[in-house]
């Protein structure tokens, strides 16, 4: 799915061009770590780092059912995933906003487990349980998909802020 693309001139250098969506999508695929932002029941934010894979036009991540992020998503599935470089003058930072939805289909979970293993070169292996991942220690992890509603891109160097709407 191709989003609508718009450069926000308020936060961009003169003459800057919007970042093409294929470039942003490629970075979402390649990134190794991401920051997940959720909202606690009392309204306070919760931010944590995690691993994710881009597949089927969505970012996928997993978490234990007892973890804070899972509890937050149970009451409010709106979230943001962020990735990028922490340098000032180069790189592309991305913020994906969307709704986290549980993935329980066995075929999809199998493809995602294979994608995790391929992307993270075998460091992360998951077997399948009943609608969950099972890690090597036997712990279960819920799997979520976040299809972007909006993505913000902050390209550094020539400073361009791009917004993609889906």
From TrEMBL:
UniProt feature coiled coil, ranges: none
Keyword rRNA processing (UniProt): no
InterPro entries: F420H2_bilvrd_red/Heme_oxyg, Pyridox_Oxase_N, Split_barrel_FMN-bd
N-terminal signal peptide: none
Domain of life: Bacteria
Keyword field contains Mitochondrion: no
Domain Pyridoxamine 5'-phosphate oxidase N-terminal: 22-150
Protein name: Pyridoxamine 5'-phosphate oxidase family protein
Source organism of the structure: Nonomuraea insulae
